[in-house]
Amino acid sequence: MVKKNIFDAPFVKEMREATANMYRLGWDERNGGNISYMLGEEEVGEYLDLSEVIRTIPTGFDVTPLIGKIFIVTGTGKYFKNVDKDPETNLGIVRIAKDGTTAELLWGYKDGGKFTSEFPAHMMSHMARLSVDPTHRIVMHSHPTYTIAMNTVCSTDEKEFTHKLWQSNTEAVVVFPDGVGVLPCMVCGTNEIGIATAEKMKHFRLVVWTNHGIYGTGRTMDEAFGLIETVEKTAQIYMLSLGHIVNVIPDQIISDLAKLWNLTPLEGILKV
Ligand code: 13P
Ligand code: ZN
Questions:
Q1: In a designed cystine with 179, which of 5, 162, 219, 237 is the match (CB 3.0 to 4.6 A)?
Q2: pTM above 0.85, yes or no
């Protein structure tokens, strides 16, 4: 069967659009940020011969539960700014090999590159989210300015952090009633931060890396993007009002908003 042009694939288009939007929003300076998107074998098979492996790349950790799964992933050191104009260099499509510790490159990383240094956090987060939501597909990491600024003035207590967000914007509890997980400042790009992130991902779709950035997950690119976008917008409101706060959204209103949308807010935050 003749394969379709990979540059026309909807998943490549989604990666180009998401990275371009994130760059334009100022969330992803230089090579900051990374995205991984789990793809179906059938959808990739329309564009690529799945028996043709360009090269293999060791993962450096055990990915056994994801054997055979295919992901399109941003490359390490690559600038989000450049993905749209050269997707084949800045993105790659990899399949987790049968040994569970190797990735098979099916397309991309044309200059000899490899997937993001945050591959452990991405793959471990995929495993954690899939265990609670089989329709999960996307892990998105970003460095949005106001979210990181909030870390310098707020405690790393995730309930306190979530409460501050819910109190600052009525959309916050509606978009993330499950709250935001928060990790303390840690060394990034390691298996350790991957394990800690995945632990949070069993309970949260959003995880903040203190003084570094945020992870958002979802079934679609829009869902993951929209979660980060709403946290960042809310963090901006919080930071702009810091030092002048005279009026926050009362807990009763936050609770009523959740009720209106049939949502259950994370327990232990609201005093109602
Ligand atoms: P990569 O260039 O390896 O994706 O790293 C960027 C980043 O955001 C590290 O946390
Ligand atoms: Zn980062």
A1: 162
A2: yes
